[in-house]
TrEMBL record:
Domain DNA-directed RNA polymerase subunit 2 hybrid-binding: 677-1049
Location within or outside the cell: Cytoplasm, Cytosol; Nucleus
Keywords for the protein's UniProt record, in alphabetical order: Antiviral defense, Cytoplasm, DNA-directed RNA polymerase, Immunity, Innate immunity, Magnesium, Metal-binding, Nucleotidyltransferase, Nucleus, Transcription, Transferase, Zinc
Complex and partners: Component of the RNA polymerase III (Pol III) complex consisting of 17 subunits: a ten-subunit catalytic core composed of POLR3A/RPC1, POLR3B/RPC2, POLR1C/RPAC1, POLR1D/RPAC2, POLR3K/RPC10, POLR2E/RPABC1, POLR2F/RPABC2, POLR2H/RPABC3, POLR2K/RPABC4 and POLR2L/RPABC5; a mobile stalk composed of two subunits POLR3H/RPC8 and CRCP/RPC9, protruding from the core and functioning primarily in transcription initiation; and additional subunits homologous to general transcription factors of the RNA polymerase II machinery, POLR3C/RPC3-POLR3F/RPC6-POLR3G/RPC7 heterotrimer required for transcription initiation and POLR3D/RPC4-POLR3E/RPC5 heterodimer involved in both transcription initiation and termination.
Encoding gene, per UniProt annotation: 8034045
One Pfam family this sequence matches: RNA_pol_Rpb2_1
Domain RNA polymerase Rpb2 intervals: 193-372, 447-511, 548-609, 630-660, 1051-1136
Protein name per the record: DNA-directed RNA polymerase subunit beta
Ranges for region Disordered: 1-21
Domain of life assignment: Eukaryota
Record bears the keyword Cytoplasm: yes
InterPro entries per the UniProt record, alphabetical: DNA-dir_RNA_pol_su2, DNA-dir_RNAP_su2_dom, DNA-dir_RNAP_su2_hyb_sf, RNA_pol_bsu_CS, RNA_pol_bsu_protrusion, RNA_pol_Rpb2_2, RNA_pol_Rpb2_3, RNA_pol_Rpb2_4
Any one GO BP annotation for this protein: innate immune response
Amino acid sequence: LPARAHGKMVAKQPADAMDTDSLQQPVKELTEKWKLLPAFLSVQGLVRHHIDSFNHFINVEIKEIVRANEKITSDADPQFYLKYLDIHIGKPDVEENCVASKATTPHECRLRDMTYSAPITVDIEYTRGTQRVVRGDFPIGRMPIMLRSANCILADKTHFQMSQMNECPYDPGGYFVVNGVERVILMQEQLSKNRMIVEEDRKGGLMCQVTSSTHERKSRTNVGTKHGRYYLKHNCFTEDIPIAIVFKGMGLESDQEIVQMIGSADSILSTFAPSLEECHRSQVFTQTQALRYLGGKLKHRRMFFAGGPRKTPVDDARDILATTVLAHVPVEHYNFRVKAMYLALMIRRVIEAQTNREMIDDRDYYGNKRLELAGSLLSLLFEDLFKRFNTELKLVADKTIPKVRATQFDVVKYVRQDLITNGLVSSISTGNWTVKRFKMERIGVTQVLTRLSYISALGMMTRVNSQFEKTRKVSGPRSLQPSQFGMLCPSDTPEGEACGLVKNLALMTHITTDLEEAPIVRLLLNLGVEDVHLLNGEELSDPSVYLVFLNGGIIGVVHNHARLLRTLRLLRRSGHLSEFVSLHSSRVQRCVNISADGGRMCRPYIVVEGGRPLVTAAHLEDLTRGLLFFNDFVRRGLVEFLDVNEENDSYIALRECDIGPETTHLEIEPFTLLGVCAGLIPYPHHNQSPRNTYQCAMGKQAMGTIALNQRNRIDSLLYLLVYPHRPMVKTKTIELIHFEDIPAGQNATVAVMSYSGYDIEDAIVMNRSSIDRGFGRCQVCRHQKCTLKRYANQSHDRVMGPLVDSTTMKPIWKHEPLDTDGIARPGDRIENRQVLVNKWVPSASSVGAQPGQPSPPEHKEVPVAYKGLEPVHVEKVLISSNTEEAFLIKLLLRQTRRPEIGDKFSSRHGQKGVVGLIAQQEDMPFSDQGVCPDLIMNPHGFPSRMTVGKLIELLAGKAGVLNGKFHYGTAFGGSKVQDVGEELIRRGFNYRGKDCLTSGITGEPLSAYIYFGPIYYQKLKHMVMDKVHARARGPRAVLTRQPTEGRSRDGGLRLGEMERDCLIGHGASLLLLERLMLSSDACQVDVCRGCGLLGYSRWCHFCRSSRTMASLRVPYACKLLFQELLSMNIIPRLDLKSHCQ
């Protein structure tokens, strides 16, 4: 036994030695950790932030709004009141001709031009006469419902259930259907509320600015410097107020107290002393004197509540200090203690920033930004409408109660539902957000969801709009911020004026919603934070303590801040604190910031402890087998969400091999720093950066599959590819967003060579036989609709049958496609100017005919005709009715197009080009297998553009075709060129991807090896047929008699100022005369040689004779100008000479 024991000991020693070695080895890679991504997206989804925000609004915020305005009373009758007990939002439904409503689906609303909305019902208690009445489920309006939110019919449905509702399971949701149009509320980027921001003002001085925002009011308060003294700026005061007077108005009457709060260091004392002296010079010593001084500087409010007692200036000033200046710091019973501390802290920040420039904040830093989502925008709007709704009810009560009536006053009869309904619908459908109370007027908050392709719809859902004007050429907000890493995509931004102002979210970004503050405050006070109400003010500047802020408000001070942060992080990882609370400390400002407000961007990371990631291979296996979900990882503290500020406090490793002793977190996957559009690009890390940006813009214009229900949709414009392919070289992102199931593009066999000279400047030579086989063939579907209305005088619109030619007994050519009911037959071919719906409208002149004259026709013809270059086919006809009880007829017109010269194609690397030549297959080069390329691309597109990713895509695609498998080109990873080359060698091909081609024209082998293989090409929506435009004679503008402009109006082609200069330079004067007058607006005018004025029909009105008239041709615009000048008492006289002289 002892020997065995001894043996054990011996065996253990080397194991110990091995242990120390294994600690120094790099951490083994978690190859499967990307599986957290699909788990995250299945829980969160790409548009989860919109949906979460809307759910928060419906379940939490709307109830708070009603609770804040719960009681309506009337001045006319003190007994009367109306009280809201609760508010509910139901399921979306539609009322069919005044009978009971039935549930509806988004698809039905799209087809029938209705709004997908649900009733808003309240439980109310009110008095009718002397009795109290309680009513439940009383409707007050309708709320448009966001698709896939909690109240939507599509919430938590399986793929099969979705298909039964004609809805695409891959459709992201997160938008509204209003009057049949899909509209998105874009995310708005703003500076965060209730936070101090120290920055330079225009004159180079420093100021500390706080934008306060509470439910009641929003205000902005500035503390700035002027001539070495400190002033408070606020727009309710007529001028800047010396800061010491504000402190005295807040009840700090002794100068010692003020200085104690700001800080008693000598440097602070010396800079603050002039401000105290100024206060003495103004003869302000007590609180009342200070308030009187402030009252004198108030802007006069025009609103005085009728009948209320007028306040003295002192009371007014006290109220303003309590409620409006720094509105987010609460003041109870006029105890200004906390507000004074906050103000003192603002001054101290400015004083410190004057000596230490590092203390100035950066407004472009993403920790100082918040994204405003649909929920918060809707809650502002609803609150405004609800208040208006209540004031209207109060006015009705005030008017109606005093009148003596037989019936008792019943307030329910006066409730108008349309106020709230129309307010919400019109705001979402126009995008104009106006909230009168906050003087907020924004336009373009919502946009129509672009359904060019699946990617364009997804890209729209992740778009972030900045509040900057696009015209100013400021580089600060446009540049790529380092704090954007992982939160916003670095590539996906438009070129041109909106560059850098419109951004897109990265793949794993989540946006928080508001959390309750009270439990967090309670927790902090229990964890040893000293309450701010118990402090005397001197602790604020004590170097040994740290201040604790929650959402920008002071909670208290703490001695051991590291322990507080450690405890809070433990609580958050164990699930006792919400996972979206962010904790970070600042050494420079000596404070701990805790944020739980909405609109912060955050993303998940794997937690690392002791140099090891907490997520192990066993966890990931459970995840693959479906035993764990993403939320379990968060709840167990293996994965946590960090926002931008907390990222700055952490030490994050990009890969397992980068983990060091002080690492705190590990990135889940590096490619998630890109967004949806940039995630489609294979090998983006081998491309020059602007090329990826170009592809992000073009990926949204690629034709493909829109959704799985595209055959049931009747949209105003649909572009569909007939034979879409899944890409041969794909990325992880493509799988995650299901792009393979609804792709947009085709794998084309490409030869990179120069051919025929029709391929210069990015033009493409295409193979005619490939086009015959269906390469690049697309369908364009447009819709035509008309409504049949009823009018007040009992007349209504009609649809008549086709007119029949009396000799042949067949319909006239215009009406050939019409059925007997006057609507075009499905499947019929329609030429230009043929009629789709033969609609007749009652003529307005049917008042009654004069006796003895034939009665005027009852109806006049207003047909819906087709206008276009190429004929179309009627795909389907929908006959239905909309909410106004009007008949609705929609026709879907289909046109199949094949690629022609001038159509635009692009690969996934920003290499766009137009078709320059369609060559016969016999003339194209072919390889020794007999493979002929679909496209020939000019090699000069590569060197200057440096799109190496495209070269690697061709290699990987070729190997994939030969091996029958898909290769990955994921960013910062993907199949290696060396491995792909070895695969090609095994299949008997050159490892460089080059082939020996034979010329189809001469039949000889080409003298060079040609780079030859498949690349994924997208057909873009820009086609020649939609752009071609020419004109001979045509319509003219009425006023100037010059040709109209624009392709849609069949306009002329303008010879502009620069072209005119060119012709002048050439001396081609007669050509100028012809273009600018004879072909445009030549006009014969009579001019009097005596007075030089324009005459009329050989008669001069001024000279009263026709003796000296001359006739000449001038442009009509010139004649018009002379006449307009005459109307303004300016006389232009024409001085004529005979052309013989």
